[in-house]
Amino acid sequence: MVVPDTPALILAPMEGLTDAPMRAVQGELGAFTFAVSEFLRVSAVVPPAHVFHRHVPELRQGARTPSGLPVHVQLLGGDPGRMAEAAVVACDAGAQAVDINFGCPAPTVNRHDGGATLLKHPKRIREIVAAVRGALPRDVPVSAKLRLGWDSEDAIFENAAMAAEGGAAWLTIHGRTREQGYKPPALWCPIRVVRECLGIPVVANGDIWSLAAFRRCREETGCIHFMLGRGALADPSLSHQVARELGLLPAAPPPTDDTPVDWRPPLTRLLHWTECGPATSPGRIVCRFKQWLKIASLYGTFTDFESIKRAQSVEEIFTLLGRPVDRC
Ligand SMILES: Cc1cc2nc3c(=O)[nH]c(=O)nc-3n(C[C@H](O)[C@H](O)[C@H](O)COP(=O)(O)O)c2cc1C
């Protein structure tokens, strides 16, 4: 939960990346305040409880990962009534906080009246947030995650005001329009303006790849609440570095060398938590490993992706990383 004067560091929802096993890993090895689930789409039919439990298995364990990291449930959809009903089902299934997605740029999602398409309709944002807020007990916070706009960066001012008017307890803003996709750089300045105008906390998000980028983002936005997505996966130490700066972890002396990241411990934990969940084929696990290491090579310092990308098994990947797999 995000409250005004207490810093927070949030693990971003990333569909296909930050699923339950990855959230479990980040809960153990990261330094986050909470995580937000990948979006659950609310289309013609309100998803029943078992769908929430499959999508966010943490709901059966007090909405926390095995190590205790709280997980908020994210909903995506354009119909206020169905979104409200879905939020109630989510809470009955165990959700303790609900986030609403107004940022997904995927064409299929947008064609079906969900995600970033709602940024073209500020009043609908207010209606959806108000409907969800009104349907839930007061102690369940409702938040909203927005991009700056559909094609205009200025749209954030009205959209954010509408989400706040609808009753969002806080907003997360990814500093890009839908049209900008993931093209760098993210724009952080509008986040400052929204934060200064609205009376609710604002979480800054987008392109925090390093401690230096975090410091620039904090400077430009004036925020004390941050969300890390790809940067946290690319560099497993980033959440710790940022959490220290935010005072969420005790200060530590700066690192004295550039020791490369040892990817075996996080991958071993991902393997463990994947094997604890529903049956997953060995091929799928290999894909998950490659997906994570690809992010580390694109945005971090991992240099061996070329050799890993042809690997056929988990064992082969660990051997290429320097040591046989050590299941735990
Ligand atoms: C593969 C992928 C999947 C994503 N899925 C979601 C999602 O389910 N819900 C959401 O609100 N944002 C989603 N996002 C957006 C991220 O939460 C975040 O806003 C974006 O990646 C910018 O932050 P970053 O630069 O720290 O990664 C996704 C991003 C990526 C790259």
From TrEMBL:
Q: Which UniProt keywords apply?
A: Flavoprotein, FMN, NADP, Oxidoreductase, RNA-binding, tRNA processing, tRNA-binding
**What name goes with this protein?**
tRNA-dihydrouridine(16) synthase
Give start and end of each DUS-like FMN-binding domain: 10-241
NADP keyword on record: yes
Q: Which InterPro entries match?
A: Aldolase_TIM, DUS-like_FMN-bd, DusC, tRNA_hU_synthase_CS
Molecular function (GO) terms listed? flavin adenine dinucleotide binding; tRNA binding; tRNA dihydrouridine synthase activity
Q: Does the keyword NADP apply?
A: yes
Cofactor field: FMN
* Family matches, as Gene3D superfamilies: Aldolase class I
